[in-house]
Specification:
The structure is a homodimer. Chain A is α+β, with helices and mostly antiparallel strands. The first copy, chain A, is 27% helix and 25% strand. The longest helix of chain A has 18 residues. Chain A is globular, with a radius of gyration of 19 Å. At the A-B interface, helix 1, strand 1, strand 2, strand 3 and helix 3 of A face helix 1, strand 1, strand 2, strand 3 and helix 3 of B.
Chain lengths: 297, 297
Amino acid sequence: MDELDFIQSLRALATHPAARGLDDDAAVLDLGTETLVLTQDSMVEGVHYLPGQDMADVAWKLVAVNLSDLAAKGALPLGVLYTHMLGAGDERFVAGLRDVLAAYDTPLLGGDTVGSGPFGGVRAARSFSLTAIGRASCTPVPSRSGAKAGESLFITGPVGAAMMGFEAMEAGMEEDGSAYRRPVPLLAEGRSLAPYASAMMDVSDGLLLDTSRLARASGVTIDIAASSVPIAAPETRRQDAMRWGDDYQLLFTGPEAADWPVEVCRIGTVLRAGKTPVLVDGEALAPDEPLGYRHSG
Amino acid sequence: MDELDFIQSLRALATHPAARGLDDDAAVLDLGTETLVLTQDSMVEGVHYLPGQDMADVAWKLVAVNLSDLAAKGALPLGVLYTHMLGAGDERFVAGLRDVLAAYDTPLLGGDTVGSGPFGGVRAARSFSLTAIGRASCTPVPSRSGAKAGESLFITGPVGAAMMGFEAMEAGMEEDGSAYRRPVPLLAEGRSLAPYASAMMDVSDGLLLDTSRLARASGVTIDIAASSVPIAAPETRRQDAMRWGDDYQLLFTGPEAADWPVEVCRIGTVLRAGKTPVLVDGEALAPDEPLGYRHSG
């Protein structure tokens, strides 16, 4: 059973409407007069971070990527629960956790702490799982599936900053890596946009890949105008910046002429569904051309 | 930084009243006209289950232990989110998940799926983390800290069944291990008792250890009458049964003469705080005598 089969078999279980078919950034659950927004994302050593990375940054990112999912649904964080696997750098981990929870005024509500072995002689690769709970600021809560032909695609800011940050870190310039190390969940922007966006998500895995997801969920094709995509990288890296993840900008659709409450960039057009979910400057990508370079949660 | 230091440093962060000082079975969060009950417990290969165990049972237990925490707070499950680490037996895992969610009418709302390596040559010991969300059926939601001197200690049923089940499995009698393999969260009992119990928790780590936790949280001493403890084991194993975990009975306090809405056993007396939080037949345990044999989440 591979990952796709596994996720398909989970989807068959997740029939409650609040689960949104496991196809959105978060679950959306009506409760009394409130609407809860719930998300769970994890980080695994060797996949989402490298051994030797400052664990304060790992803690920051773990919280930030979950809060970014809340941001994409226009939700206000109520708190987090998280499971910690003990190991090296735990003091730094707690320091980073304190920073990020304070920065976004989000309470730690509970969780679990487990050992990391060795178990049967095998040291565990460490993993950390976090659940963020939010309350919707407006209903209906934007999904990925509401984009309609004739609308436009927008983004809240540049892509490529995390890529440049990662490369700076690889080159030993740790201090220039903050866009990668400490991503910023756009909570206020998400709440401002949620009442007006027809579909919204955060860009975690790369602009092209995430646009294709939004397009598939909505049953449309989206044509991105490459030159209009704001990038935080040299022009020579435009194609890379559109494929790199970890920037956590908000990607959303709506009328071209809308008076958006925050500064946004129009980067594409929503079309009726064609052969492929995403076009760049009107052209389909070659079948073997990657939509994204990195998978990061 | 060892586990205790780590948890202490988390407690210093968890100042929101909903976190209950990270000292209860679950977080309790008021939201509009509702009260949410939130818990997160994980299972790690080699700690909470053994490689080779039927993964359907692992999935069952992961959900059941979390629902048991909701039961101890009198909450009705609204759903679960969980993070899965891919690996052997995933089809069985999904089958067990389907069984347990159906048995307790609990929707799967979301989660995350990650690989298990090898990363840098190290296979990850697999870990699974689950968050259960419930709604309180009564307020105030019972805590561990409400027991008062003069009250009695009660339990919903026998301890030792999981111990006997585990030993049957070790002896190759898999079918006799169901009490260990597939614990039952006492959701209906918890909701019936919650309005009347002064303090309540589930017995996950052993009767003596969990009683000591309830006593410490309440600032009392509790004297257990050993012979009154119902056990699902031979009389010769009474001391073991009182120290083994995994039975998930509900342990609670209240007036001796209360007319409890479900069948319960009175097993002890709440006293003013003495030198040790728990006595057995009026005697403190020897300092080196273990309160519990197994730690299991």
